Amino acid sequence: MEARWRSSAKPVQAPKTTKTVSFEEVSGEASSSEALPLSLHLTNAVFFSLFFSVVYFLLSRWREKIRTSTPLHLVNLSEIVAIFAFIASFVYLLGFFGIDFVHSLILRPSTDLWNSEDEEENEALLRKEDARKIPCDQALDCSVTSAPIISAQKVVDEKPVKLTTEEDEEIIKAIVAGTTPSYSLESKLGDCKRAASIRREALGRITGKSLSGLPLDGFDYESILGQCCEMPIGYVQIPVGIAGPLLLNGKEYSVPMATTEGCLVASTNRGCKAIHLSGGASSFLLKDGMTRAPVVRFGTAKRAVDLKFYLEDPENFETLAVVFNRSSRFARLQGIKCVIAGKNLYLRFTCSTGDAMGMNMVSKGVQNVLDFLQTDFPDMDVIGISGNLCSDKKPAAVNWIEGRGKSVVCEAIINGDVVRKVLKTSVESLVELNMLKNLTGSAMAGALGGFNAHASNIVSAVYIATGQDPAQNIESSHCITMMEAVNEGNDLHISVTMPSIEVGTVGGGTQLASQSACLNLLGVKGASQESPGANSRRLATIVAGAALAGELSLMSALAAGQLVKSHMKYNRSSKDVSKTS
């Protein structure tokens, strides 16, 4: 590379066509429409009116077809004419205005011009720059490419230097001053890593706090754009441990667990060992259906009752299912349950969602049904697409009783010798402790779905490792742990029943590299090609199996009086991590 730069000892010549441009020319402040003749103004107005008129007409017609269950591809003469008019007006408008738009994306103005975008006070700053002329190659932001931008003078000196440092400094100053919004950096720069770096530096200057311990490099910021996290400044490191092999339904799984709690992985691993030595565990799926419950309001309670009876009438279900299922090729409406509070009606929709966790999918289907119902119930006022009867990310009896997501039961019979030698306790002690702690103690505490020792520990760790929504740990950790002496009291039967495990293997955080690798480790990465939904259902059974192992080990530690001792050994450190580099 150095030889190549030395061979070109001559300064780089600017193109002959280079000219200077003003800030107004670069930023587009002088609108192109100001120079148009009157005939073009009239033509633009005609095509604008035509475009929006046919769009409104087509949307009205298609909405009517959806309500009457008429196939969308069946069109009459007026609709054909409208479609051709839409295409013609779209092509005209795209040709007239689209070229400037594309140029504005490719040939972005330099960061010095950004201050003109959002506030009127910045326009005054641009007017002060009217007399200033900028060479074209400096007015364009070419920093989107990954190659370093090198000036001609630096090429001659054989010391290439990136110009982005100075440009970034201008952007940082604009953010600190409040003239450039931090959230717009990705779209303006076209470089997510650079946007995160600039935002991070600006935040440090605004707050006066150091972010040196928060990693920035080594992460694909493009992968989270528009789906996982907004305005990133780095990422948090969470160690991932492996518990297992967990022998479940005749197959071994190495369960990834992302946690910062010492002893958790080791304890779950011990539970997996006890289950494996006893012949494995069995896990069964009871139900599979995600829910969404909008709340609607009427003028009277009678009208709310009318809609309730309409929705719960079996003769209307097929029509509603057709409308709902149009939202996705995987969404399939399973049922609607209604609850009335005065003149307010809560509609709890349940549907299957394939391998996706399904919140967005079910929400789109619900919106379709609500639009459809407006024809027969025009006085229905939709207060919110979610009325909390769902119930998402909150402890709720409806999830504990009816279930949400995947409902799973998992069981195992632990050999008495394994209880004594591996778990260091006895069957009798475990049964007694489970009754007094998980059942009676939880009842005394008024627990809602919390009749267990620490199911949420395992659920959270697996969720974070596999890219699930950590907040859904709340209802996903609903669990009742049962223990009983069997085989004349020699062995232990243990089970966990978890009615609302909410998981998916596609969408959201499951697409990130680290989380995708953990799903691949379990053999449930992505969508199942053989049977839609099979991967997410298997993941739910693995979560229940891991929870079973965690319950077994912790309860054994409590029964043997080992909890404090093990945590003092594995969950404490004399090392000050904050002082390490």
UniProtKB/TrEMBL annotation:
Membrane topology category: Multi-pass membrane protein
Pathways involved: Metabolic intermediate biosynthesis; (R)-mevalonate biosynthesis; (R)-mevalonate from acetyl-CoA: step 3/3
Sequence similarity: Belongs to the HMG-CoA reductase family.
One Gene Ontology CC term in the entry: endoplasmic reticulum membrane
UniProt xrefs under PROSITE patterns: HMG_COA_REDUCTASE_1, HMG_COA_REDUCTASE_2, HMG_COA_REDUCTASE_3, HMG_COA_REDUCTASE_4
InterPro entries hit by this protein: HMG_CoA_Rdtase (IPR002202), HMG_CoA_Rdtase_cat_sf (IPR023074), HMG_CoA_Rdtase_CS (IPR023076), HMG_CoA_Rdtase_eu_arc (IPR004554), HMG_CoA_Rdtase_N (IPR023282), HMG_CoA_Rdtase_NAD(P)-bd_sf (IPR009023), HMG_CoA_Rdtase_sub-bd_dom_sf (IPR009029)
Ranges annotated as spanning the membrane: 38-59, 80-99
Protein name: 3-hydroxy-3-methylglutaryl coenzyme A reductase
The enzyme's E.C. designation: 1.1.1.34
Keyword rRNA-binding assigned: no
Keyword line: Endoplasmic reticulum, Isoprene biosynthesis, Membrane, NADP, Oxidoreductase, Transmembrane, Transmembrane helix
Main location group: endoplasmic reticulum
Gene3D superfamilies linked: 3-hydroxy-3-methylglutaryl-coenzyme A Reductase, Chain A, domain 2, HMGR, N-terminal domain, Hydroxymethylglutaryl-CoA reductase, class I/II, NAD/NADP-binding domain
Catalytic class of the enzyme: oxidoreductase
Catalytic activity reported: (R)-mevalonate + 2 NADP(+) + CoA = (3S)-3-hydroxy-3-methylglutaryl-CoA + 2 NADPH + 2 H(+)
Domain of life: Eukaryota
Subcellular locations according to the entry: Endoplasmic reticulum membrane
Any GO BP: sterol biosynthetic process
GO MF annotation, one: hydroxymethylglutaryl-CoA reductase (NADPH) activity
Organism: Gossypium hirsutum
Record carries keyword Membrane: yes
